[in-house]
Design brief:
Largest sheet: 3 strands, antiparallel
Number of helices: 5
Helix content: 40-55%
Oligomer: single chain
Distance between the termini: 49 Å
Strand content: 5-15%
Low-confidence stretches: 6-11
Number of strands: 3
Order of helices and strands: HHEHHEEH
Radius of gyration: 21 Å
Structural class: mainly alpha
Shape: elongated
Mean pLDDT: 86
Strand order of the largest sheet: 1-3-2
Length: 143
């Protein structure tokens, strides 16, 4: 079976890609809030979003820097995001750049695995429902 590829194209955005793959449902609420913000603020030419943790908190509705950091680390582990960390000057922290990497082969493999798992679960559910219908039909006593 060939691996299904999910990509964001002209008519398809990051959220659509992740929802259709089944990965969206496996993300935490915070991750589902942060990801559209990163996609929205990404420059169309470079694909990089430059936004502070405070900006991510403001636009995503996530109230904790620790939660933002945890989500960013998870996206990096999934190979969905690359972060260019910028050092700060004196008292101020630098603003990082974020690049969504939907085409990363490891991320594509993860998405394909989740998609195949969900398709198998859907098929199993269909079979179970068909068996239940068949059992109900057979248990009806003719009058």
């Amino acid at each position: 079976m060939s691996a299904t590829r999910f990509r964001a194209g002209v008519d398809e955005n990051v959220v659509t890609t992740l929802v259709r793959s089944g990965l969206w449902g496996e993300l935490t609420h915070a991750e589902r809030s942060i990801l559209p913000v990163l996609a929205t603020f990404a420059d169309r030419n470079t694909g990089f979003a430059e936004i502070s943790y405070r900006g991510l908190m403001r636009y995503s509705g996530v109230g904790s820097q620790a939660t933002i950091a945890r989500a960013i680390r998870h996206f990096e582990q999934m190979r969905l995001l690359e972060v260019a960390r910028k050092p700060g000057e004196l008292v101020f922290r630098g603003v990082n750049q974020y690049h969504l990497t939907l085409e990363d082969p490891e991320f594509q493999g993860l998405v394909a695995t989740i998609y195949q798992k969900q398709r198998a679960e859907i098929e199993l559910e269909k079979q179970l429902r068909a068996e239940e219908r068949r059992a109900r039909r057979e248990s009806i006593v003719p009058v």
